[in-house]
Amino acid sequence: MVNPVWLRTFVSLARTQHFTRTAEQLFMTQSGVSQHIKKLEQQLGVTLIARNSSAFELTEAGQRLLQTAEDLVETLDSLATWVADDPDDCGEVRVMSPGSVGLKLYDALLGLQLEHPGLVIDYRFAPNVDVETRVADKQVDIGLMTQAPQREGLQFHQLSQEQLLLITPAAYPTVDFMTLRELGFIDHPDGYHHGNLLLSRNFVEFSHMSEFNKRGFSNQINLILEPVKRGLGFTVLPEFVVEQSQQRDALQVHPLSHPAYEPVYCVTRKAPQQPRRVARVKHFIETSIQRRVAGDWLA
């Protein structure tokens, strides 16, 4: 590998065309400049400068080297600045969460991106297991999950909890367990998990979600309630999804004696230091979710 110190000396000498001025620029002695050029010639196996009693000129090999070396030296000179440059308002940040978490959060993140156009928010919706895998595999910077991750190398903390709601068509102002069995279940990626959490706390007859006939499935968070509105079955979803739904009068939300809640965790890789842009977006997410819990969600 070419010694970058010798290469810098060669470029400076080629520009100044003077050993003494090169030595002054590089805070060296004139003999030190000569030694660097000689060592570079020995390393490359070519003569780079043709000397005479009072001056020198670049050989053909020296001219070819200079064409590339100037760019290399400039790159090396700016490398430290480039490596240390870590703006908090520029660059891509990859976020992934289940749809129930991201439904409103994504809108808030777009607001952050409008304030800082240099930021690029890559937001993807996925089930908890996929979120955990992508964060662990360094494909996602920030994960939001409704179940605590299990994989090594991850760190997490709980941001909030979301109440789970039992939702039926509006034609059912009250329900019992038999009514739910007759209706059947509208499933979604977290449907069995949500249903088990809520129904096991409120119906002694309940054993497992598999005892309900499956009447439909959607992995699009904004479509899950559509078949419920049309009378095709019931479902269980976090409160926020219901708040965002259109035509709420077509739905009946049933208050139950024993509420169940789903936690929301922020998940990142264990690392000595996060890029500042990732830290900024993570703080914004945490603040946004906490403001929503306090009833002051970002518009």
UniProtKB/TrEMBL annotation:
Superkingdom, natural source: Bacteria
One Pfam family of this chain: HTH_1
Keyword Nuclease: no
Keywords: DNA-binding, Transcription, Transcription regulation
Domain HTH lysR-type stretches: 6-59
Gene3D superfamilies on file: Periplasmic binding protein-like II (3.40.190.10), Winged helix-like DNA-binding domain superfamily/Winged helix DNA-binding domain (1.10.10.10)
A single GO molecular function term of this UniProt record: transcription cis-regulatory region binding
Record family assignment: Belongs to the LysR transcriptional regulatory family.
UniProt-recorded name of the protein: LysR family transcriptional regulator
Organism: Idiomarina fontislapidosi
